[in-house]
Request: fold
Amino acid sequence: MQTNFAPELLADPETARSEKILRSCVHCGFCAATCPTYLLTGDELDSPRGRIYLMKDMLEKNRPADARTVRHIDRCLSCLACMTTCPSGVNYKHLVDHARAHIEETYARPASDRILRFLLAALLPNPRLFRLALGAARVARPLTRFAPGRLRALLSSAPSRPIDPSDVDRPQTFPAIGPRVARAALLSGCVQTVLEPRINEATIRFLTRHGVETTVAKGTGCCGALTHHLGKRGPARRAAVANIEAWTREIAAGGLDFVVVNASGCGTMLKDYGDMFAAEPNLAAPAAVVSSLVRDVTEAAANLKLSFTGAIPKLRVAYHSACSMQHGQKITNLPVELLTRAGFEALSVPEGHICCGSAGTYNLLQPHLAMQLRDRKIAALRATGCDVVATGNIGCMRQIMSGAGAAPVVHTVELLDWSTGGPPPPAIERALLGA
Ligand code: SF4
Ligand code: SF4
Reply:
């Protein structure tokens, strides 16, 4: 694609990078075939190529974002299916990140939008505040049906019962059981610790059982992805710096063989820290080291000598590959291979490359499109005839669970933990084992 940026604009490294990305697009349109929003609306401006044109026009002229551009960029899930499909290697991710930050800086959103985005950015990355907000949402639950669209989606996403925090999410070190084969830091995260604390518990049981000393480092928390995707660079950067500094201290104190992540949305973000801070002399090296150590829990598992008990029922598991897993991190077959080795029957899911509509805060900001994608995903999962759905991302889990008719949904690591001597996942116990 031909570009026409003024030389003074190209002095900015991010603009220079975006210009390079734009030039790599040959506007072939192949990406439209796998874009979920184009699939739903049929509007070229809701396709990757259409959005690329909008972003080019905005960034090239360095003009404030307009309502039309914002509407179509806001509808983008950042699922990155287009990056998997693109034959020219267009880095859509970095381009849309730049566009979102530009929108945040130059566009005056309507007040209701600003308030909702402010609340999401303030509450979700902070487990204590998020827990309080869920308590308030539970009290307001009877009023849900009177609430307007997006507020209704927000209120109805709150769990109906309080969920106790888990002790494992406090900073501490869990010794390896038996001879130590590795030392890892676990990103305990933010939303996941509030909504599904059992995932970190299963991860720690699984890792320590296989000889991995696992630490939850003081000072770590949200990876920054939630605010990053809202275009809010300041909070995203602060979260990333806090994690980099905390793990750099861990490396100096006890060494780290890897940083384990069990939410693929966070994993994609952590693996990008090196790129995010490449131009900052003080942070470039530590950020690159941290990114190089990051492993999804299935990648960590693949490097361990796993001891399966062989004592689990041969359940039919439909593995839902989160977009951040398959498109963001290019982890495709590994989770299925591990589940098969564990003794489950892994089923392939039709339209497996299409997003479930969760996409961080997307399901709260764009509920209309998100619900259509969710229902389509649930129909595809049901078509497999599975007993259980497994996935490696908290957002997808909650999104699929929120729809009607889905099989029990668990995290992949819960199945790996169970098949190597841990307890059955509560969702399976309730639904299938009659507990
Ligand atoms: S597939 Fe790639 S090169 Fe073709 S239009 Fe889409 S982004 Fe551009
Ligand atoms: S990231 Fe996903 S929704 Fe956005 S343009 Fe690419 S394929 Fe479409």
